[in-house]
């Protein structure tokens, strides 16, 4: 099976090219040979922006006091992403990364040049910390929702990193993974990979319901993993071992399915993260092909970007994907131990 897919534009796209963004702007790569897709002579639609591996990558430096202390105590190793699974951004320069290897959430605050880790579970029973953080979601108050596939709960932290509460009673979740918030912020969708269903948690009423069961028919799942919600409130769910993305309306009713099993571009071998840009285009990570495929709302393939490797354009067993309001594309590049940031150029 050929793992190398050629980036190309397959369907004419009527996007207008623009560098102007309405919110926070990350610095562009200064490399004259910056990675971009599709290949010339087609007009660039996706451009590489930056790589995040450690605090230094967003301009965070050790304080003078810290450097003086290290003269006597020895240098402390700089924190570094180890096994990223999920990623999300607040759209204002702050990037959250779930790291199953280090069992923490990395918080990179580019705007304020700050870095911290979230992992403590205050007032929870032992071990009192995250064990396998996977999915991430953020609400308008900057509360952070984190699924833990080993502890089988979803934990909710405030913007300071303090645990507010947890979701999930004993034996309720099989293996909670992907998370997504409804556009109004009232409902949290939880992908239960182990139980082959989607839980719907009402944040206001503190109640929970579900839809889906194991199977291959429309509306059924075979190991659902990642999710995204578009501007209309429709839910896009990676149905991993049915090799497709299923779309549901806000009430959990099936709308359509995108993709099928295959070994060529336009089909899926190991679909993972999913995201929606401001034009409604659908981005799906293929973990085996080390690429991201882009479809329109009709399910027609537009292009793909990324290739196997470790350079600017490289991905190695990528996992989660998130697209913010300004069309920055964040990818958890798992085996390269980093987050790759790209941008869709409207």
Keywords:
Neuraminidase; about 350 residues; 5-stranded antiparallel beta sheet; 4-stranded antiparallel beta sheet; globular; 1 helix; about 5% helix; single chain; mainly beta; disordered N terminus
Topology (elements, then pairings):
Blueprint lengths: L35 E2 L8 E7 L11 H10 L10 E6 L4 E6 L4 E6 L4 E5 L14 E6 L5 E5 L4 E5 L5 E5 L8 E6 L5 E6 L4 E6 L4 E5 L12 E6 L5 E5 L4 E5 L5 E5 L12 E6 L5 E5 L4 E5 L5 E5 L1 E2 L5 E2 L5 E3 L4 E6 L4 E7 L2
Parallel strand pairs: 23-24
Antiparallel strand pairs: 1-2, 2-27, 3-4, 4-5, 5-6, 7-8, 8-9, 9-10, 11-12, 12-13, 13-14, 15-16, 16-17, 17-18, 19-20, 20-21, 21-22, 25-26, 26-27
CATH superfamily annotation: TolB, C-terminal domain
User: How many domains, in number, for the residues?
Assistant: 1
Largest sheet: 5 strands, antiparallel
Q: Helix segment count? A: 1
Question: Mean pLDDT, rounded to whole units?
Answer: 90
State the CATH topology. Neuraminidase
Q: What structural category characterises the helix and strand content? A: mainly beta
How are the strands of the largest sheet arranged? 1-2-27-26-25
End-to-end gap = 34 Å
What gross morphology would you assign? globular
What's the architecture in CATH terms?
6 Propeller
Strand content: 35-45%
Unreliable runs: 1-22
List the secondary-structure elements in sequence, H or E: EEHEEEEEEEEEEEEEEEEEEEEEEEEE
The radius of gyration computed from the alpha-carbon positions, rounded to a whole number of angstroms, is 20 Å
So what's the CATH class? Answer: Mainly Beta
State the helicity in percent bands.
Answer: under 10%
Number of strands: 27
């Amino acid at each position: 099976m050929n793992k190398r897919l050629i980036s190309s534009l397959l369907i004419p796209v009527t996007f207008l090219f623009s560098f102007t963004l309405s919110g926070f702007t990350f610095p562009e790569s200064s490399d004259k040979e910056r990675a971009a897709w599709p290949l010339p002579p087609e007009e660039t639609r996706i451009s590489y922006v930056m790589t995040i591996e450690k605090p230094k990558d967003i301009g965070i430096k050790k304080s003078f006091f810290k450097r003086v202390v290290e003269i006597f105590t020895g240098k402390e190793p700089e924190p570094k992403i180890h096994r990223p699974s999920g990623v999300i951004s607040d759209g204002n320069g702050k990037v959250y990364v779930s790291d199953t290897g280090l069992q923490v959430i990395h918080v990179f605050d580019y705007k304020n040049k700050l870095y911290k880790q979230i992992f403590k579970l205050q007032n929870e029973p032992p071990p009192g910390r995250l064990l396998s953080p996977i999915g991430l979601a953020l609400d308008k108050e900057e509360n952070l929702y984190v699924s833990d596939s080993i502890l089988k709960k979803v934990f909710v932290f405030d913007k300071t990193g303090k645990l507010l509460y947890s979701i999930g009673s004993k034996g309720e979740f099989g293996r909670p993974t992907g998370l997504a918030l409804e556009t109004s912020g009232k409902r949290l969708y939880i992908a239960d990979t182990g139980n082959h269903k989607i839980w719907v948690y009402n944040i206001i009423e503190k109640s929970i319901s579900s839809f889906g069961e194991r199977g291959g028919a429309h509306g059924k799942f075979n190991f659902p993993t990642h999710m995204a919600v578009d501007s209309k409130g429709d839910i896009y769910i990676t149905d991993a071992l049915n090799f497709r993305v299923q779309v549901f309306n806000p009430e959990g009713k099936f709308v359509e399915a995108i993709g099928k099993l295959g070994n060529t571009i336009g089909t899926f071998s190991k679909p993972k993260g999913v995201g929606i840009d401001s034009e409604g285009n659908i981005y799906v990570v293929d973990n085996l092909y080390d690429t991201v495929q882009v479809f329109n709302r009709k399910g027609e393939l537009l292009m793909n970007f990324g290739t196997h490797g470790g350079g600017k354009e490289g991905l190695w067993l990528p996992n989660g994907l998130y697209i913010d309001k300004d069309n920055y594309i964040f990818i958890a590049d798992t085996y390269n131990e980093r987050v790759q940031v790209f941008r869709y150029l409207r």
